[in-house]
Amino acid sequence: MIHDYHIHTSRCGHARGEIQEYIDRARRMGLLEIGISDHVPMYWLPPDRRDPGLAMDGAHFPGYVREVLEMSEKHSDIGIRLGVEVDYIPGFEEEAAAALSGHPFDYVIGSVHYIGGWAFDSPKYLEEYGRRDIGEVYRDYFNLVSRAAGSGLFDIIAHPDLVKKFGFRPEGDLAGFYRQAARSFAEAGVCVEVNTAGLRWPAGEIYPSLEFLKICRMEGVPAVAGSDAHLPEQVGWAFDQARELLLAAGYTEVALFRGRRRRMVKIL
Ligand code: ZN
Ligand code: ZN
Ligand code: FE
Ligand code: FE
């Protein structure tokens, strides 16, 4: 694989390792380009309710941006892009835009981690699945994914079927959800992320599934790859499988970003 565009660092409070360690690992993995995409400060909550174990404080955000830019200057043998992972919270689009403004991001990744106030991807709130109708959870999740794409805030939608993380699936065909999401990506001009972190959870497969990725391909949605590394040794993790999935879905290219402009490169 050419690039890994989804990498966290110790700044977020739940990953380990400094940027330099992630770069060293990426170089050893033979990646040509990486993007650091740490979690944005929790802009939708009042400062006293933000959890330092989930994202860096707003006061640390400019330092993050500066360090990634410095690293990018310092290392010329490997491309280092400035990214960020931003939770999509409906009704807080202006606050999200304000949190991002004034920083020279190469790309912005949008993620749905919350349905209402429920952090459905956190092992801490797993029991909530037992209280809900799984079909409704999926419907709510994919509606949020489509709204995230349409918000205009993002260049890439992360782990687009994250709702499968703990292995819960409704009865019946999921293609309707996938088509709805893929069409919203195509209309908004955002990329779909092929994220290998799903392999580490009960879902046991990459986000998105092959069926979902094929539909993205048919709708003309460009793709990027990410490991969602929270440890240096996870950079480029299981990318042989990500590459196979992309090729199986019919992709021959992936997208690279610079200054929020996209160009396509052939999959090696
Ligand atoms: Zn994280
Ligand atoms: Zn995420
Ligand atoms: Fe992430
Ligand atoms: Fe994430």
Short description:
The protein has 268 residues and is an alpha/beta fold.
Secondary structure: elements and pairs:
Elements: E1 3-4, H1 19-28, E2 33-36, H2 61-74, E3 79-82, E4 85-87, H3 93-100, E5 109-111, E6 114-115, E7 118-119, H4 128-131, H5 134-150, E8 156-157, H6 175-188, E9 191-195, H7 210-218, E10 223-226, H8 239-248, E11 253-258, E12 261-266
Parallel strand pairs: 1-2, 2-3, 4-5, 5-8, 8-9, 9-10
Antiparallel strand pairs: 6-7, 11-12
Helix pairs in contact: 5-6, 6-7
This protein binds zinc ion (2 copies) and fe (iii) ion (FE) (2 copies).
* Helix fraction by DSSP (H/I, runs of at least 4): 25-40%
Q: What overall geometry do the principal axes of the alpha carbons give?
A: globular
Please identify the top-level CATH class.
Answer: Alpha Beta
Percent strand: 15-25%
End-to-end span in angstroms? 6 Å
Helix-strand sequence: EHEHEEHEEEHHEHEHEHEE
Quote the average pLDDT: 97
Largest sheet entry: 5 strands, parallel
Tell me what the CATH architecture is.
Answer: Alpha-Beta Barrel
How many strand elements? Answer: 12
* Spans where pLDDT lies below 50 across 5 or more residues: none
